[in-house]
Amino acid sequence: xxxxxxxxxxxxxxxxxxxxxxxxxxxxxxxxxxxxxxxxxxxxxxxxxxxxxxxxxxxxxxxxxxxxxxxxxxxxxxxxxxxxxxxxxxxxxxxxxxxxxxxxxxxxxxxxxxxxxxxxxxxxxxxxxxxxxxxxxxxxxxxxxxxxxxxxxxxxxxxxxxxxxxxxxxxxxxxxxxxxxxxxxxxxxxxxxxxxxxxxxxxxxxxxxxxxxxxxxxxxxxxxxxxx
Length: 228
Known about the structure:
- The protein is of the alpha/beta class.
- It is 41% helix and 24% strand.
- The chain has helices at 11-21, 33-40, 59-68, 84-93, 105-124, 152-163, 171-179, 187-200; strands at residues 3-7, 26-30, 47-51, 75-79, 97-100, 126-129, 132-135, 140-143, 146-149, 169-170, 207-212, 216-221.
- A five-stranded parallel sheet has the order 2-1-3-4-5, sandwiched between helices.
- β4, α4 (84-93) and β5 (97-100) form a beta-alpha-beta unit.
- α2 packs parallel to α3 (59-68) and α6 crosses α8 (187-200).
């Protein structure tokens, strides 16, 4: 079971958050940033949920200390302060996500799942969906153990979409990231590459590349075993 560390000075909030998450995760607790750092010296933690306003060491200071030491554990910051300035400071410090109180625990679970999945992808440098395995910086994919050759752009485009299933990327976002800001290619290029990927991955089960008319593309993951 994965370990989640709750860093929160209010015992009642820690207790409620622990109760909501303990069926899916092993929960560790700290009342402030200093306690969290002490705990992290001898415990492996997969994700941190931290409040901002805490005595001795607040959430910002905790995140900064972790990032400066090279610790890249995913961090969700929970706070009652819902202002642009606080969000900006949090992300600038190095948090991965931000939620305001009162906490919607169903949404928190979604965000935890998304961050843990992305962290797993980053650590393993590969994505497995259904019967397909795609490695980062690889010019091929495996479908049921069989190698399918991909171009550099095809590989980058597929890896991007599968890293964030359900997220719609606009054509401009994909063009800028995959082809570069100074590319002379137009949006029809993306359509061509999506078509090529669909043809090459026709035997894949578990996901599909979906066009969102007038906007862009997303990868849709199927929950059923046969991908239907």
